[in-house]
Amino acid sequence: MTETAPPADASLPAIGVRTTRQRQAILTALTGRTHPMTAQAVHTALTGAGHRIGLSTVYRALHRLAEVGLLHSFEVGGERAYRRCPDTTHQHLLCDKCGLITECPPHLVDAWLTELRATTGFTPHADRIDLHGHCADCTAAAR
Amino acid sequence: MTETAPPADASLPAIGVRTTRQRQAILTALTGRTHPMTAQAVHTALTGAGHRIGLSTVYRALHRLAEVGLLHSFEVGGERAYRRCPDTTHQHLLCDKCGLITECPPHLVDAWLTELRATTGFTPHADRIDLHGHCADCTAAAR
DNA sequence: CTCCATGCAAACGCTTTGCACTGAT
DNA sequence: ATCAGTGCAAAGCGTTTGCATGGAG
Description:
Structural class of chain A: alpha+beta
Largest interface: A-B, 30 and 30 residues
CATH superfamily of the largest domain in chain A: Winged helix-like DNA-binding domain superfamily/Winged helix DNA-binding domain
Strand order of the largest sheet of chain A: 1-3-2
CATH topology of the largest domain in chain A: Arc Repressor Mutant, subunit A
CATH architecture of the largest domain in chain A: Orthogonal Bundle
Oligomer: homodimer
């Protein structure tokens, strides 16, 4: 398994991606967020903050950045949303209530996936698991 | 947990859905399929088979039938696809190669979900889990 | 007889693409 | 100097909706 550990901020050239004002802005906007953002949301946020950037650029950049592993993309209600990946974990817990995405403890999944595979013959994509539900906070709030 | 066991063919009225020529055709087209179909695919199949049915009717019917539990819907590459549910299991294994959908043995999941919840506080939607990967056949074919 | 359901066509919203220009390497 | 990246506007595509008609209960 090749490590795609995301560089802190911008070692873009090292991955074969040119460093541009727009891409930096997008990465910055996405940094520190626990909730994913759609292309439109990113565009609105950036233009609202005074940046000059085209919508299609946002789409293309997000696509590219996800491709090289700097972002993770999620299917949220028929829309594509992106988030910076905080680590190498690609197993996510998505809260359908508040949109929060947390990482799933790998060891917890791996054992189960192995068992699943052994039992059913089905080979799960261990590096791309999105589990829907309610996060701890929303679960607590619901009671 | 309320049982939503799908009636063999058409106890539609019992669920509050009127029995129409179009809905029966849709259910028939979907019966016995292991792969899900998109609205467009269903429409093409039906009109190709000589049925007179509007595209929007297909959309509305699929939506409604999924709502009452006769169909399961899946997000497949940004599109919505539907399949008749063979049983009460709502935990699916989706093959990204051939599109095959199989049911996941409930006991295998439930224990794990319980553990996940206890460990993380996250409450998974146990009745709506879609796991992507390669089915047994495609896994075998790949080697 | 009353509504739910249908068909058609228009509208919608998100995303992609063509093309000429800009800017990073 | 070269070519990836950008901006704009138009097109694409799956899906939804308004409205008048049709058929199930």
